[in-house]
Amino acid sequence: MTRPVGRSRILIADDDAPTREQLALLLATEHDVVALVGDGKAAVEAAVQLGPDLALLDISMPVMSGIAAARHLRKCAHAIKVVFITNHVETAYVEEAFRLGAAGYVLKPNLAAELPIAIRTVLAGGTYRSSLLG
Amino acid sequence: MHDVEMSSLDDRIAALEHELAVCREGRSVAEEGELRLSLFLDSVQDFAFISFDLDGRVVGWSRGAERILDYPQVDAFGMYSGEFFTPEDVARGEDKREFRLAREASRAEDERWHLRRDGTRFWGSGVMTPLLDAQGRLCGFSKVLRDQTATKLAEACLRDSEERLRLFCENVHDYALIPVDLEGLVVGWNTGAARIFGYAPEEILGQHNSCFFNPEDIARGEPEQDLRRAVAEGRAEDARWMVHKDGSRFWSHWVTTPIRDQQTQLRGFAKVLHDSTERKAAEELRERLLEKERLLLQTQVRSTGEALDRTKEELRALAGSLLGAQEDERRRIARELHDDLSQRLAVLAIRLAALRDTLPDGPGGTQDEALQLEKYVAGLASEVRRLSHKLHPSILDDLGLVVAMRRLIEDFQASRDEPVTFIEREIPDDIAPATAAALFRIAQEGLRNVSKHAGEGPVRVGLEHESGALRLTIADAGSGFDHAAVRGLGGLGIISMQERAHLVGGSLNLNSRPGEGTTVEVRVPLTSDDDRAGRRRAAPAITKETR
Ligand SMILES: Nc1ncnc2c1ncn2[C@@H]1O[C@H](COP(=O)(O)OP(=O)(O)O)[C@@H](O)[C@H]1O
Ligand SMILES: [Mg+2]
Predict the structure, then answer these.
(1) Nearest to B504 by CA among B375, B401, B355
(2) Is B18 on the interface with A (CB under 8 A)?
(3) What was the pLDDT predicted at B307?
C-alpha cells in the first residue's frame, strides 16, 4: 500500500486515551496517523521503528515525559519534527521545548483551532508557538 | 606451814598412836606424851584431828579441826559426829557405817561432803581408826580429815570438760574430727568420721591418715605436706578429692591443726574434715546455671540487637513508604489541579476571548468588561498552577532535575538580596525519578532552612556528577549551628533530608559550626532503572504515576 503524495506520517503520544482518539480523528483527513502511544518511552521506540515525519508529544506522561522523549529523538532520530501538545504554559517548559529543537508548541485548550495550522506550518519547515502563550 | 602427804601422815599417826598406847601404861610418861601429841597435832593446821568416844561424841579437837570445821574447841566437845555430815548422808546412816567400818576393818577411809558450823559444805577426805586401850579394848575413835574442796572441784571440772569434749566430738555428725599422732597415724575416730569415711573405729585406728587421700595426691606427697604445713603455718587448710572406705571419692574441705601440750611440745594433729561434695556440686551447678544464663542473656542481647536493627529497617522502610506515599499524593493532587482545573480555566479564557469578539466595542463597553474577566481567569489559572507546583513540581518529572533545580534557585533568589548561585556540571538526563525527587526535596528543605535559620549572606548550590555518584551541596555563609545540640529537638527537616538520601542509597553530611555557616552535602549513587526497581521493592519510594 502506497500513501498518497502530500500526506504526512504522524505519531501521536498522549497518556490520555480519549485525547489520543480525538487527535487521531482530527488529523486523519489530512495525514496518516502511524502510531498511538501512551508514554514517552513507547513514543521513542515507535519513532525509531516507524520513522514518522512528525511526532505529536504530550509533555506530562508517565515512564518518560515528552521532553525526555524529545531529548532522545534529538540524538537518535533528529529528522523527526516534534510538536508538543500540552497544558503547560510556564516559561521553563516553553524554553526547554524549543531548546530541544521542538518545531511547535500547542496548548491543549485550543487544539481544535490551532493544531491543523501548527502541523501545516511545521511540515512546511516553520515553527509554531501557541497564540495563548502571549 | 607443813605440807604433809597423806601416806607419811598415816605413818606418823600410827607412830603417835603407838606412842600414845605406850604412854598410857606409865602415867607420867603418859602425861608428857599427851602434851607433846596435842602440840604436834595443833601445829598441823591443814588437817583436822578429832577423837570420838564410843558413843561417837567429840572428845578431842585440834586447832586444824577448829579451822576447817569452824567450831571452837569448847563448842565442839560433846558434839555427835553425824552433826558434821550432810542430812542426806545421816539419813542413809553413813555416820554409823563409818564407825562400824573402822571397828571391823580398823580403818575407814572416807570422802564426802561435810558441814561447817555456818552450814556451808566442804569436801572432806579422811581416815577413821579405832582407839584401843592397853588391854586391846576399844575405847574410842580418831579421825584425820582434810579439806579437799579445791582439788575436788578442779577434778570435777576437768572430768566434766573431758566428758563434754568427748560427747561433743562423738556427736558431731557432719564433721570428721580425727586426731592423728606425730607419725600421722589415726588415734581417734568420731561419729562424723565414721559416717563420712565409712570405717569402723577398729578398722581405722592406728592406720596412717594417708588412706583418706586419693592415689594421685599420695604420689605427690600431699599427706606429709599437709602435716608439715600445719606445723609451719599453725594450720593447713585445703580442699581435695578424698577417698571413702569403698574407694569412691568425695570432695572435702579440711583443716589440720597441730596439737601441743602445755609445754608447747608437739603431740600430734587434729584434722577436721567436711564432705563438701554436695556443696561443690551445688557450686558447680550454680556456675553452670550462671554460665547458661550468661549465654542466654548474650543471645537475648544479640537477638534484641537484631530485632532493633530489624525495627530500624522497618521504620526506615515505613518512613520511606510514607515519604513515597506523600509524594504520590501530592503529585496526584498537583496533576489534578494542573491538568484538570487549570485546563478548564484555559478553556474558559478561550471562550471569553471568543465571546469578547462578538460584543460591541466602545469605551467603557462590554468588551472591556470581558477583557477584565479574561485577565481574572488567567490570574486564577496561574494561581492554580503555582499551587500545583508547590504541591509537586511536575517540572521535575517533565523537564528533569537540572531544570527543576534552576527554577527552584530562581524562585529562592527572588526572595533574597544576596546572590544565590547554582553550579551544575555534566548532569545526565536520565536520572532515576526517585533519585531526582530525593535530591530536589533535599535542596528544597536545605534552602528552606537557609531562609528560616541562617540569616543573611550568599548561598551556593552545586550539583555535580563524579564517579558514578551525584553530589548536591547547599552552602550558606550564615549563622551556622551545633548539630549535636539541636538533635532530638523536634525539627524534622534535617531528619527527612537524611532519610530521603538514605532511601535512594545515598548519605547526607552536615557541616556546620556556630558563626561559620552551614554546608549540607548529599551523595547519591547514579543507578540504572533495574537497580532502582530492586530498591523500590525493598522500600517503596515514589511510584510512577498513572493518570
Ligand atoms: N542552614 C542553617 N543555618 C543555621 N541553623 C540551621 C540551618 N539548618 C538547620 N539549622 C538549625 O537546625 C535546626 C533543625 O533544623 P530542621 O531539622 O530543619 O528543623 P526546623 O527547621 O523545623 O527547626 C533548626 O532549628 C536550626 O536551629
Ligand atoms: Mg527545617
Answers:
(1) B401
(2) no
(3) 85
What is the pLDDT confidence band of residue B13, given thresholds at 50, 70 and 90? low
Spatial neighbors of B448 by CB under 8 A, at least 6 apart, are B493
pLDDT score at A2: 47
Whether B334 contacts chain A with CB within 8 A? no
Atom of ligand 1 nearest to the CA of B454: 3
What pLDDT is stored for residue A94 in this prediction?
A: 94
Nearest Cα residue to B545 out of A26, A66, A60, A54: A60
Closest-approaching ligand to the CA atom of B451: 1
Q: Which of B394, B399, B546 minimises the CB distance to A96?
A: B399
Question: Using CA atoms, how far apart are residues B324 and B537, in angstroms rounded to an integer?
Answer: 12
Sign of CA dihedral B421, B423, B428, B429: positive
Closest by Cβ to B547, choosing from A16, A65, A92: A16
Q: Give A16's contacts in chain B (Cβ within 8 Å).
A: 547
β B108-115/B58-61 pair status: unpaired
Domains with residue ranges and CATH for chain A: 9-124 (3.40.50.2300)
State how far the alpha carbon of B301 is from the alpha carbons of A35, B111, B305, in Å. 63, 84, 6
pLDDT band at B132 (very low <50, low <70, confident <90, very high): confident
Nearest CA-CA distance, residue B487 and chain A, Å: 38
- Tell me the nearest-neighbour CA distance from A6 into chain B, angstroms: 32
For chain B, give every domain's residue range. 1-39, 44-154, 172-275, 287-392, 395-547
Contact B398 A93 (CB under 8 A): yes
> CATH: 3.40.640.10, 3.40.718.10, 1.25.10.10, 3.30.450.20. Which one for B172-275?
3.30.450.20
Q: Pairing state of beta strands B420-425 and B459-466?
A: parallel
| CA B33/CA B45 separation, integer angstroms | 20
- Quote the DSSP letter at residue B57: B
Residue B39: pLDDT band (50, 70, 90) is low
Size of interface A-B (CB pairs under 8 A): 64
What CATH number was assigned to the domain covering residues B44-154? 3.30.450.20
Residue reference for cell 601429841: B37
A16–B545: do the CB atoms touch at under 8 Å? Answer: no
Cα–chain center distance at B507: 47
Residues of chain A positioned with their CB less than 8 A from the CB of B401: none
Residues β-bridged to residue B360: none
Answer whether B44-154 and B395-547 agree in fold. no
- CA of A60 vs chain B CAs: smallest distance (Å): 6
> Could you read off the pLDDT of B460-494 as tens digits, one per residue?
999 999 888 999 999 999 999 998 888 877 788 89
Average pLDDT over residues B63-72: 90
In this complex, do A132 and B430 lie within 8 Å of one another by their Cβ atoms? no
> Which of the four pLDDT bands, split at 50, 70 and 90, describes residue B131?
confident
Q: Contacts of residue A92 in chain B, CB cutoff 8 Å? A: 395, 399, 403, 406-407
The CATH number of B395-547 is which of 3.30.565.10, 3.40.50.150, 1.10.10.410, 3.40.109.10? 3.30.565.10
